[in-house]
UniProtKB/TrEMBL annotation:
InterPro entries: DUF4209 (IPR025209), ERMARD (IPR039635). Residues 131-211 form the DUF4209 domain. It comes from Nyctibius grandis (Great potoo). This is EMARD protein.
Amino acid sequence: MALSDSVTTCLSPPVHYVICKLGFEKKDTYDINIILSENGEVCWQAVTEHVCYLESDQSVDYIKSIRSLGPVCESVNLHFKSLTKEQFVIQYALWFRWTNYTELFLEVFDVLQHTQTTEVALGLMKLTSCLERALGDVYLLIGKDCPFLLRDLLASEQLAVVFGQAVMNVLRVFIGSPYGLNLRNVLWHGFASPQEIPAKYCAMLLFLTAGLGQLLQTYLLQTKCILVHRPYVIFVSLEELDVFPDLNHETLSIAEELVKLSSFVLKTMLPFWMAALTAFKQSRYADCVILLLPQLEVGLRLLFTTTNKCPNRLLTAEPSALYTTFDEMLAKHLDNEEVNQLPAVLQEPTMASILKEFLWDFLNHQEGPRIRDRLSHGEINLKAFPREVANQIVAFAITLLCRFSDEDMCAFKEHMVIKPLMNCASCYHSRFHPTSRLKKQVLECMKSIHLWPELPTVPEEHVRTIKGSEGNAEASTLILMISEIISQLQQYMPQNCYSSDDPIGSVLTERLLVELCDMHICTLYSPRPVLEILSVLRKISTQCHQVSEQVMASTELRYKQWMNKTLRSRQRHNYLRMLNSIKFLSPVLRLILVLITLELVNVHLVYKKNPLDYQQYIKFLKSVLQYTENLVTYTSPEKNKWDETMELTNKALIKIRKISDRKLMLMQLAT
């Protein structure tokens, strides 16, 4: 891994030229008064004149445009340096209000006064994310679904209507197009080192943002529209993100030493790492994570390109190729279908799984925090970024620094404050993969069903007044079928959880589900059919939980009405039928939850060994889903169809019993 010392840039030669040299070729001195009027308004026509177009199709000629805009950017940068903070606030603060984050742009102005390269890069990353969010709000003045990608947003007709196409073309020279400077992407994906981002481009984007505010004000006055800002995303259930212990000053001090020695860190990127750790110590948690996430990506990219012998992929791709990003680095195969060698270089059998599970949990899974997406697209309030999230990212980064350190650094790995982090990483299991979410759903549903015996109910003698409610053949058949199915499945359950004297009471318990859910299930490289199965199982669990909640709500309501003697004769009879039905509905729902969990434990093995049975299998699961959906309808307060519920349940159990014989064969083949 000596490569981390020898790499001087992650920008390919053409991209390095465009960002670091092209905009400096023209040595002209540009008069700021040409693009800035006496009353402080941006003269957009003078700016847009510097955008050049190809003769062939009149699309933007990015090379000529960057070269032409270079002196303009320098003039703007010098102009800002000539202003005091008070002068800047008086002249420009008003025009940043449309972004809903004026303070950020004032902060960027402060950074430009000192020209510290790391702070400029950080300021540019924050500016572009905030600008993207604000432009999305403007888009929604006209459009409905805001584009997810910045390049699509900038190319939209909606923004062209508000700001003008020529103005949008100016923005695309700086951000959003892989043919332009593409400043946002080269920073957020970890390709640019601090010294490779000219401060004048940050100054120009600050200037253009103010100009956009002026154009927007004119548009809003003309159209009488009101700009509405979308609410920020708020992290909920932070306890689910609690993986590593809280980092203290001693841990962070050791991390600073590790950064200087670890082969995971490119030396050109060292300032970003140090700035990230400093930001954490200063309680600037959003800044810390913004700086650190791209460095995790470039560190893994270094490993990926080294182990797969494709060193050219360490550099930024040209517009005609794709970046090597997290998704590809964590994939099972390369784009040429060869096996990705990165998991092998991680050596420990579980390290590849841990690495992917943690990164996918925090960055990719739809039900996870999706930290990078939400930060880079401006969806999070940077002022209220939680320490808990930053703590997890920094702690995980420290474990990578240790993992990719020389052998003579064992003292660091065994240090009393570092070892607990390594231990936490070694036993990490996914929390936001569909498998993990299904486990959580099943346990929550079982807790809900376990509350049924505590529900208030009328005396048993009243229930017996229903004709045939006691000892009828239908009820006996239901219990018998449930017992038979449990007997068939008990060999795949943990030991000591089955009693032939009481199969229902001994098996259909919360304890069993907890034991099954505690079993580790590999979520690495789940094939699409398995994910489809998990999706159906989750829907079944959701419907079961809905049935449980409806049963509890109806039971409590009807009991109150019974005690208050406000039920009509027919309603009383229906209430008693309900009480009779839910005695049998409880074990049925618990059986379904056990089946779901057994499917969850075995689905990867079954599919791997018997992929041809998939269509038949998914058809069966969808029939169970249909049953639970019908249950939701029949047990709703509006329907209250309890006789139909029992009839429906009987048919469903017959089908489950039939398919369970077939399913047992599949499980036996898989194990």
